[in-house]
Design goal:
The chain has about 700 residues and is α/β, with parallel strands linked by helices. The protein is built from 29 helices and 15 strands. A 7-stranded mixed sheet has the order 10-11-7-8-13-9-12, sandwiched between helices. Strands 1-2-3-4-6-5 form a 6-stranded mixed sheet. A two-stranded parallel sheet has the order 14-15. It is globular and about 90 Å long.
Length: about 700
């Protein structure tokens, strides 16, 4: 991949951050922090990160992260300079910034009482206080757009907990952005070289060796590198389910037989240092560069789980490893094939999440061929740039050697119209009413997105891409409105829930084709978002809950979906006759709920509405939902997704409160059993009839 001059990269980065800050109305340092945290999250370096700025005497912090697996407590601080080339980040400066960040660990308890509930800083203090007693490691990150003259400080500790330091300066960000890969290469050196057996190969671009690695060593590698060790950093291997349970049982009860029972791991590396025999044949591995586990993620994560949570030392546990040494120039061609053809332990494979997956290749090809209509009256059509792999935009820009050519490229392909795979998953899942998945972070949300893509196998044509980009325009508009309502660092959560609630209320009948053709949303749609956003904030940012954790739960979406709100007349008049689906197969729960709704006659839904109105039972929003269901069924239209699930909940509640459909010639007991059968797919059982 072509190298982009560091100075040019620095200049472009400052311009991008300024443009983002101006568009979003945020401070430049906070915008830069969020920008880098999104990079680190996609890279698997950090997860569940949130902005929360606080500064006081001897202390400054920009955000924190509490990974769901409890592997670390992460704190972030930022150094951003509008003229980064004019000076370098010195050792004295970086040490001072790290000290000010470290100070938060000792002072968070005193800061908390002075913060209002549900503020970003209050949530941060609560989260840190809860995490500190059990967290095995603390990581302090310094994010800077200047080139550092020093490396990160040596590890220290806080109250007996190890503290490690991460310095992400301009040079490191530049290497990351222009590498075309998700993360920096993992380098592993073995104190005791791993015996190996080399397989003969006449292929010029790769070679294969077989080795056996101690289980504890593999677990320690995962402990150190976490998701970075698992190719493309989007897989979350949890020790649950049949396969993982079997792995864990073997490790706990028959560790000596693990090598015999387990399939082992398939790994790749870009460079390996060997010990050789007298004939020059490899006999042991001293070190590896660019290590990736492309198959066997469950084995690796399960080893870590047993080591850290079950407190087993893994003595006597060995894992077979097939290691392919691949020329870096051929990684993108060979690695997906290795993953595709490897013997997998479950249906999730690397290719599901790879940049080379057919879906992403097709989406890039089609979306970049589209010319977006001019939206500013200039007559200048533009393109949306889908970054199938990180760094593509920067690399494409670098292909234009002159400043004039680069200006022309940015005019036609502006940075504001650049979006990544995880961005696409966010936009589409918000439209598809899955805000709790979006709230779980880029990796988990993207993994779920790919799982849904595999199930639906969408036809990626011009219409599909236009409508997907329209969801991006809708999300971005909602994001700007959330900013005007002072959503703060919770803005992204508020935005995804606002879009999801709007999609639900409109039954996905907002005209995405019109949004694409106008490259923006209508005044009626803006007004609806502006009206809805504060209601979302009242529900998501509420009580003494930890906002970030609450937003990840389906229960949060359940509350938001029941907010009493109807579409303004101006927007209702713009709705299309049919809904817009964006490659989103509904879950089995939704399928069964849809079938259950259709089994209930429209007359019964109408009778339920009349009964509820006469008796003044059920909430107004529930009566309105039942009324909409009755109307749709009478028109021969389907009731889909979350609306079907909620409709069955309303039907169940009505039966519990005394609604009897017997007057329609329907046996009450049969109706009850039918409803309970539907809600058994995920709804709580009724408390009575």
């Amino acid at each position: 991949m072509a190298e982009h001059d560091l100075h040019e990269y620095s200049r472009d980065l400052v311009a991008d951050i300024q443009a983002l800050a101006d568009a979003e109305g945020g401070s430049i340092p906070n915008t830069f922090t969020r920008y880098v945290l999104e990079i680190l999250e996609e890279a698997g370096v950090a997860t569940d990160a949130a902005l929360a700025y606080h500064s006081s005497r001897g202390l400054e912090i920009y955000g924190y992260g509490l990974p769901e697996d409890g592997s670390s407590l992460d704190l972030y601080t930022t150094d951003f300079n509008l003229t980064p080339s004019s000076s370098k980040l010195t050792k004295a400066e970086s040490d001072r910034l790290f000290r000010r960040l470290f100070a938060f660990l000792g002072k968070h308890g005193a800061i908390r009482p002075n913060q209002e509930d549900n503020t970003d800083v209050h949530d941060m203090c609560v989260g840190v206080e809860k995490a500190l007693p059990d967290v095995p490691k603390i990581r302090l990150f310094l994010l800077s757009n200047r080139v550092s003259t020093t490396s990160a400080p040596e590890p220290t500790e806080f109250d007996g907990v190890p503290v490690v330091y991460e310095l992400w300066d301009l040079a490191r960000l530049h290497r990351h952005e222009t590498s075309g890969s998700i993360s920096e290469p993992i380098k592993v050196a073995f104190e005791r070289p791993l015996p190996c057996l080399a397989a003969h190969s006449d292929e010029p671009n790769y070679s294969v060796v077989l080795a056996v690695i101690p289980g504890r060593q593999l677990a320690e590698l995962y402990k150190e590198h976490r998701a970075r060790l698992l190719e493309l950093n989007v897989r979350s291997f949890l020790t649950r389910g049949g396969v993982n349970k079997g792995i864990r049982d073997t490790l706990l009860n028959a560790p000596g037989k693990f090598l015999a029972y387990n399939n082992g791991v398939t790994a790749t590396a870009s460079d390996v240092e060997f010990e050789t025999d007298e004939a020059g044949n490899p006999v042991a591995i001293r070190s590896m560069t660019g290590l990736q586990i492309v198959n066997g993620g469950q084995t690796t994560a399960s080893l870590h789980h047993v080591l850290t949570r079950d407190k087993r030392d893994l003595d006597g546990v060995y894992v077979q490893m097939k290691l392919t040494i691949v020329d870096p120039a051929y990684l993108s061609q060979i690695v997906p094939k290795i993953s595709q053809y490897s013997n997998t332990q479950n249906k999730v494979t690397l290719v599901d999440f790879s940049s080379n997956h057919d879906f992403h290749v097709a989406f890039q090809r089609v979306s970049r061929s589209l010319l977006a209509p001019a939206a500013d009256g200039s007559g200048q059509e533009t393109r949306w740039f889908y970054e199938r792999a990180r760094g593509q935009y920067t690399d494409k820009l670098a292909e234009h050697e002159t400043r004039a050519a680069q200006r022309k490229f940015k005019l036609i392909t502006p940075t504001r119209q650049r979006f990544s795979k995880s961005d696409l998953a966010t936009f589409v899942h918000s439209w598809e009413q899955l805000p709790y998945w979006v709230s779980r972070g880029a990796q988990k949300n993207f993994a779920h997105f790919m799982d849904r893509i595999e199930k639906s196998d969408p036809v990626v044509d011009a219409q599909y891409c236009k409508r997907a980009i329209a969801t991006a325009l809708l999300f971005q508009a909602a994001d700007r409105i959330a900013r005007t309502h002072s959503a703060g660092s919770h803005k992204r959560l508020i935005t995804t829930y606002t879009v999801a609630r709007l999609s639900l209320a409109a039954e996905k009948r907002i005209d995405l084709d019109r949004i694409w053709s106008e490259q923006g949303i209508t005044d009626a749609l803006k007004g609806a978002l502006d009206e809805l956003c504060p209601l979302i904030m009242e529900t998501v940012i509420t009580g003494d809950r930890h906002v970030s954790e609450w937003a990840k739960k389906p229960d949060c979406w359940d509350e938001v979906s029941r907010i009493p709100w109807t579409l303004p007349d101006a927007l209702a008049a713009e709705l299309t006759a049919e809904s817009f689906e964006i490659a989103s197969p509904e879950s089995t729960d939704s399928d069964e709920a849809e079938a259950a709704v259709e089994e209930i006659p429209g007359e019964e839904w109408r009778a339920l509405v009349d009964w509820a109105r006469e008796g003044r039972v059920l909430r107004a929003v529930d009566r309105q939902l039942a009324d909409r269901v009755a109307q749709r069924l009478s028109q021969g239209r389907r009731v889909t997704g979350a609306q079907a699930r909620q409709a069955m909940e309303v039907h169940e509640e009505a039966l519990r409160l005394g609604f009897h459909p017997t007057s329609l010639g329907i046996d009450h007991e049969t109706a009850w059993e039918r409803t309970v059968g539907a809600v058994a797919t995920g709804f709580p059982p009724p408390t009575g009839r």
